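Entry for fe (iii) ion complex. Fields follow.
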Amino acid sequence: MALRVKALESLLVEKGLVDPAALDAIVDHFEHKVGPRNGAKVVARAWSDPAYRERLREDATAAIAELGFSGAQGEHMVAVENGPGVHNLVVCTLCSCYPWPVLGLPPVWYKSSPYRSRAVIDPRGVLAEFGTELPADTEIRVWDSTAEVRYLVIPERPSGTDELGEAELAALVTRDGMIGTARL
Ligand code: FE
């Protein structure tokens, strides 16, 4: 795959259709500027500010854009909140739809056919394989991302974090926590 991509890139550059510097800028953008740290800021704000959390419930796209995160693959966002007895898990059964502005590019396993099929058939089993064992009475809600709607899981705020500020809280939030394959 890497060779094919390289060959394609060489051809496009050779024909003058793309500028290598532009490609580097795009890759750098998604690797370093966009990524799960954006989503972590949204989660930390939701934990810290009840009014923000309410706006996130009502219109996640707008609430996320308040923090400056918007654009391609994040046009229609829905925030799903974990809570006592409820755990949310996000998948794209069809392909790899993922909320780029808040989480960056999806991990390889998210795009794999075993995850895509088994997350809906046996979410509890898939979570266990990620090391996430949920109590038997916890309801698991599985959300199927589409080209129209992308989901962001708002994990439960860890206990003992009452004194932490938003930046410190954001540092506790993981990518997998916002996909729902992990708890914090
Ligand atoms: Fe998809």
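NOTE: Strands lie at 77-81, 86-91, 139-144, 150-154.
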